[in-house]
Amino acid sequence: MNHESKFYCPDCDDGSDAPHSLNRRAFVRRLSGGAAAALAAGPFSRAIAAAAEAGAKAQPKPAEDLIRELHASLSAEQKAKLVLPWNHQAKEGQLSRLGAYNSAFDGKRIGAEYTKPQQELVRRTLRSILSDDESFERISRNGKWDSSGSFDGCGATLFGDPSGDKEFAWLFTGHHLTLRCDGNSMPGAAFGGPIYYGHRDPGYAASNVYRYQTEQVQAVFDSLDAEQQKRVVSENPGDGQKGITFAKADAPRPGIAYRDLTAGQKAQVEKVMRTLLDPFRREDADEVMEIIKANGGMDQIHLAFTRDGESADDKKVRWHFWRLDGPGFIWNYRVLPHVHCFVNIASEHAAA
Q1: What is the pLDDT of residue 313?
Q2: What is the C-alpha separation between 302 and 96, in angstroms, rounded?
Q3: Residue 134 in contact with residue 140, Cβ under 8 Å?
Q4: In Å, how far are 94, 204, 272, 333 from 218, measured between CA atoms?
Q5: How many CB atoms sit inside 10 A of residue 31's CB?
Q6: Of 87, 93, 280, 345, which has fewest CB within 10 angstroms of its CB?
Q7: Phi/psi at 169 (nearest 5 deg)?
């Protein structure tokens, strides 16, 4: 049995996952098929199909524009509760703009704080910082949102003022989830600051929406020879916000350097990188790669696998944590007892 209490996850014991819902891409394909059939059904149906096709071709608004639209729709009372200063810091030192959270920020839930039209704006904003509908489905954990229970049970908070050219940041928070968008108010900080995602099912389980990431990482481990595997199984870096604090650029890093891998092994790591970035919109993924290049390139990245020494899991389980660590770069992925992934990426100047 795992020592779950030592992990940062205050409300992981609630709720249960629902069966997998219909993949949204599959839904769109079904809809497209229906529209094609409608073309042969008469003028009225053809008009409906034409409208559907035009809607499908319409480009969604960028997340930043949706955030401005949401901000403009807020009442004075809502702004007092939901819009905080750019450099807001609670007295306890816990609720800051750059935190990674495991529930709705400050307990303010979307369903209780926003009108129905505003809730739709929040949903569209979240979708706009992701690459596609399938990624939205994964982020929602197939519509269950883990212990948040629903989209309404998550939170959406604004920092700063998005109405002009001032600094701002939008945070979407829930159980196993902190995502953000800041319109590049923090140049050199990917995603506008640390992000966090996860799923309450074990990472090796078919029911975990991030199992495909676990499998890609396992392929990296399997590509290493016995001596390399010994080198990369290193000290557990820890889970949660403290585990993604940048070390100094010249500090020793756990595991094995990317530059010491074979060409085939490097290709496998690069494949994982693409897999990890695929859920996010193109500009954010591109910024991650630009930051890696600015900080010295992939040759500066180390990879480490860690087995939790206190765990009583099946001994066939080779690792519980996987970590990419380099100057201004941490992608810390925990697979057991369930998925937690904390990410912090910034240029050396922004990370200083």
Answers
A1: 61
A2: 29
A3: no
A4: 35, 10, 10, 12
A5: 12
A6: 93
A7: -150, 145
Query: Which tokens sit at 67?
Result: 């955030």
Burial tier of 310 (Cβ tally within 10 Å: 0-12, 13-18, 19+)? exposed
- Report the alpha-carbon distance of residue 23 to residue 26 in Å, rounded: 5
Instruction: Kindly state the helix (H) or strand (E) to which residue 266 belongs, with its residue range.
Output: helix 263-277
Helix and strand numbers, DSSP H then E, in the chain: 12, 10
Pairing of strands 83-84, 155-160: parallel
pTM as predicted: 0.82
Query: Tokens 């795992």 map to which residue?
Result: 2
- Is the backbone of residue 289 left (phi > 0), alpha (psi -120 to 50) or beta? alpha
User: Which string of b and e fits 263-301 if b means at least 16 CB within 10 Å?
Assistant: eebbebbeebbebbbebbbeebbebbbebbebbeebebb
Residues paired with 330 in a beta bridge:
325, 344
**For residues 178 and 100, is the Cβ–Cβ distance under 8 A?**
yes
Structure-token match 């200083």, residue found: 352
* Nearest-angstrom CA–CA distance, 289 and 254: 21
State pLDDT tens for residues 283-311: 999 999 999 999 999 999 999 998 776 56
